Amino acid sequence: MTTIAIGCDHAGFELKEQLKAALIAWGHTVTDYGVHGTEPSDYPDQSFAVGRAVAAGDSERGLLVCGTGIGSQIAANKIPGIRACVCHDCYSARVARSHNDSNVLCLGARVVGGELAKEVLRVWLSEPFSGKERHVRRLAKIAALERERGA
Ligand code: RB5
Predict the structure, then answer these.
(1) Is the CB of 43 under 6 A from ligand 1?
(2) Among 53, 57, 5, which Cα is nearest to 28's?
(3) Helix axes 114-126, 13-25, angle to 10 degrees
(4) Which of 10, 88, 90, 99 is catalytic?
(5) I want to staple 69 with a disulfide (CB 3.0 to 4.6 A). Which of 43, 74, 98, 108 is the partner?
(6) What is the reported pLDDT for 150?
């Protein structure tokens, strides 16, 4: 079972609530960084909170939901150590884990329905990083750039 930090903006609120219920039903431990309603909000706030929680090791993984997943992905990837990926299909979710060791999943509530989002999340949570040398080497290059920038 996994500890998961979750967050959303107003556009992602309803899907975030659905996915939160699914995560809890599957036995995961969820920390919810909001938002908690559909009042307009700024996705970077929750993306940074979730990204920081994962980067600090407070949670093993993160889940962000906004309208498209794109803004959340861009914002979360500004946190050193975060590998946030928008995935709206199960193949991408699987490869985001096995090749990219993605630690934050971003979903767009205006793009995917609840059932597909749940399936993508389930696949993304269960697929391990392959650990293959070529993938480790490529991820190490990204981490080296972060260190070079003093992150
Ligand atoms: C909000 O309207 C929307 O821009 C936001 O949820 C997200 O899609 C940004 O990438």
Answers:
(1) yes
(2) 5
(3) 50
(4) 99
(5) 108
(6) 77
